[in-house]
Amino acid sequence: MAVFDEYIQTTQATKAHGTIKHYKTTLNHLTRFAAQHRRKLTFESIDTRFYHDFVTFLTKDLAMTNGTANNQLKRVKVVMGYAGEQGLTDNNSFRKFKTLRHTETDVVYLTRDELETLVHYDLTAEPRLARVRDLLVLACTTGLRHSDFSTVRPDQIKGDQLVVRTVKTRDWLYLDLNRYSRAILECYPQGLPLLSQQKFNAYVKELGQHCGLDTPVQVVHYRGSQRVEEWLPKHELLSSHTGRRTFVTQSLERGMPPAVIMKFTGHKDIKTLMRYVKVADAEKRSQMEKAWG
Q1: N or C: less crowded end of the chain, CB within 10 Å?
Q2: Which of 38-42, 97-101, 287-291 shows the lowest per-residue confidence on average (mean pLDDT)?
Q3: pTM: predicted TM-score of the whole model, two decimal places
Q4: For residue 227, how many other CB atoms are within 10 A of its CB?
Q5: Tens digits of per-residue pLDDT, 145-193?
Q6: What is the SS3 assignment for the chain?
């Protein structure tokens, strides 16, 4: 679909680099799907039959979970909507594409004890992991995405604030520093270590294993109609997004009002913010005792 590539080129200046990569990946899946099914993809062909065949291709041939397949369908719908706005098609069948049933991976975040373990773990003999640890702790204590914490420069520190214009939304954030974030930034007067998201996500799992973050976490997802359930050590689920989730969840646990958290994270509504939250079992017990004795 030429219009898919056109959409990518047209929006490249306004979308984050990671988002553009996702759209290119979906285009590659569509190209492979068309070749495998010997089918020319036209605007008119994006119908119910396409939906069912593409879902089968994604979940069976590519072994995607339903959640990942939903992301591919979402991008197809966005591009079809773009084509309609450009007057290229009046086919609206894509609006009837249903979201596949899926259960998101349990929200992985670091507890207070786990965060303190990372902060104080002696990584003198592992300088590479020490740098990854510092980046993760900075994310956990500021709520920044990888695209933002990975590019922090010394000149963004204004007094006791870190001033960031986010890559994804282009919003300005004024982050008040705390003892954790302040200490890390002071360790890198020439700027933070540069690390791609792919390498960070690989190294942070290694870091978690090295530091003993192995609490079992249940992961439940669907592939087509098949329910897949497994238990994994927490370190296998760590990623650049763990920091943002940790910041939101721990800030709530520590008593920070949601409206204030949103000032730090840049969320526009409470519903989106709360998707990040995972209430710890210890906090549940604490709140039950506080409410009921």
Answers
A1: C
A2: 287-291
A3: 0.71
A4: 11
A5: 999 998 899 999 999 999 999 988 888 999 999 999 999 999 999 999 9
A6: CHHHHHHHHHHCCCCCHHHHHHHHHHHHHHHHHHHHCCCCCCCCCCCHHHHHHHHHHHHHHCCCCHHHHHHHHHHHHHHHHHHHHCCCCCCCHHHHCCCCCCCCCCCCCCCHHHHHHHHHCCCCCCHHHHHHHHHHHHHHHHCCCHHHHCCCCHHHEECCEEEEECCCCCCEEEEECCHHHHHHHHHCCCCCCCCCHHHHHHHHHHHHHHCCCCCEEEEEEEECCEEEEEEEEHHHHCCCHHHHHHHHHHHHHCCCCHHHHHHHHCCCCHHHHHCCCCCCHHHHHHHHHHHHC
Residue with tokens 């680099």: 17
Q: How many residues are present in the chain?
A: 293
The fold for domain 112-283 equals hpI Integrase; Chain A (1.10.443)
Domain spans, the chain: 2-96, 112-283
Residue 155 token pair: 């000149």
Residue 60: which of 22, 100, 97 has the closest Cα? 100
Q: Please say whether the beta carbons of 154 and 191 come within 8 A.
A: yes
Phi-psi region of 143 (alpha: psi -120 to 50; beta: other; left: phi over 0): left
CB of 1 within 8 A of CB of 33? no
Which candidate, 218, 152, 144, places its Cα nearest to that of 191? 152
- The answer to whether domain 2-96 has CATH 1.10.150.130 is yes
Q: Which amino acid is at 46?
A: I
Q: Is 291 exposed, middle or buried (0-12, 13-18, 19+ CB in 10 A)?
A: exposed
